[in-house]
Amino acid sequence: MTESKYTRQTVTDVRTWVPGKLFSLRVTRDPAFQFQAGQFARVGLPGADDPDGPPTLWRAYSMVSAPHEEGLEFYSIVVPEGLFSPRMARLQPGDALYVEKNPFGFLTIDRFAQGGDLWLLATGTGLSAYLSILRDPATWQAFRRIILVHGVRTAQELAYRDEILQWHRQPAYARYFQEDPRKLVYLPVATREALPGAPQARLTSLIADGGLERLAGETLDPERSKIMLCGNPAMLADARKLLAGRGFAPGRRGIPGNLAVENYW
Asked: FAD-binding FR-type domain: from which residue to which, for each copy (predicted)?
């Protein structure tokens, strides 16, 4: 990869969610780097054998930050045996992180016709793209109601939970909640413990038995529901089959669909 394809950015903030497992980084942003909410970037680090050299290791990370924000934010799990994430987790403010100049991905709201309900279903760090989408005012204007579902193993893995729960108090979001107190329905679900108001269950099990609709107080109706899926491949494969049986399918040949899917690794 030639140097012209990437820029050198600087880490400005590090946040640990679960020590040794989940973290977020904020870095500076090249003014020329433009993206749509829901897209991802390829970020790079030098190889371990030449830590001061050019970036040779690259991984894809969805932006957590919104397109209008000055910096870029990334949310990651640490894969202990991985070549990249353990080193990324050790970065400190002032360190370098390299970012390719072009964004990627199609998990964006322009995949759908406006109106109706937007269901954002994520497992683990698949939440990243949805945070960017929800930090973008265009999303709140485009849909009647938004249902955000975050599947994790345990409650401590519910990164960004406090921020999400406080959105109704923030000026950027408050007017939407004034118009409809249920504008955003946030449903955290854990597989290894029961959370308040939610059963201990897998996201796919809740789709299959109707539990997700009961929790949300909304129906998965292919005529007015649009669904995004982002997370681990096993969840995506199972959820796609379940939703296909309910009439959900990606768009094709210029025809907007009601399902958009992105593998998160």
From this structure: 4-110
